[in-house]
Write a structure and sequence with these properties.
Blueprint (H helix, E strand, L loop, with lengths): L5 E4 L12 E5 L3 E5 L1 H34 L1 H27 L12 E6 L2 H6 L8 E5 L16 H8 L1
Antiparallel strand pairs: 1-3, 2-3, 4-5
GO molecular function, one term: ATP binding
InterPro entries: DNA_mismatch_repair_MutS_clamp, DNA_mismatch_repair_MutS_sf, MutS, P-loop_NTPase
Organism: Sporolactobacillus inulinus
Length: about 160
């Protein structure tokens, strides 16, 4: 049985006044009754529930429309936040690992001191990574890189690429 009802156990059935209560369901140990007032309260509650659902749907639609109207601004904001997130991550990693910001000039030269590869340095045993320097200018515009296999030649080339 759905809805609101009053359940009365079999021993207490004799206490129910005649005429006002309408029997709705009989169970093995009890009977269920409704009254006109209970029916009215149920109707009011069901109407309120329908109103609530309608209002929720209307408010949801209004919010969606407002978001849609601002979608370009929200997407721009999301891009700015993602850029800030990347920059903050760079700053955090730089601070943790002692990285520095490069200095640029108009000279035709490249000078890298204590260069490190962040991934390779992380996977090597602590203290075994060897940083290296690279210097190229008008007097040196070609580097010959030699060394044993797995000696870091490709890593140096990747830095210059």
């Amino acid at each position: 049985m759905f809805g609101y009802y009053i359940e009365v156990s079999k021993p207490n059935l004799k206490l129910i006044p005649e005429g006002r209560y309408e029997r709705r369901q009989t169970l093995s140990n009890a009977e269920r009754f409704i009254t006109p007032e209970l029916k009215e309260k149920e109707r009011v509650i069901l109407e309120a529930e329908e109103k609530r659902v309608g209002l929720e749907f209307q408010i949801f639609g209004d919010v969606r429309l407002k978001i849609k109207e601002q979608s370009e601004r929200l997407q721009k904001l999301a891009r700015l936040i993602s850029s800030l997130d990347v920059l903050q991550s760079f700053a955090s990693v730089s601070d943790q690992n002692g990285y520095v910001r490069p200095q640029f000039s108009n000279e035709r030269a490249l000078e890298i001191k204590n260069s490190r590869h962040p991934v390779i340095e992380r996977v090597m045993r602590r203290g075994t990574f060897v940083a290296n320097d690279i210097k190229m200018d008008e007097t040196c515009d070609l580097l010959m890189i030699t060394g044993p296999n797995m000696g870091g030649k490709v890593r140096i080339c990747a830095k210059l690429h």
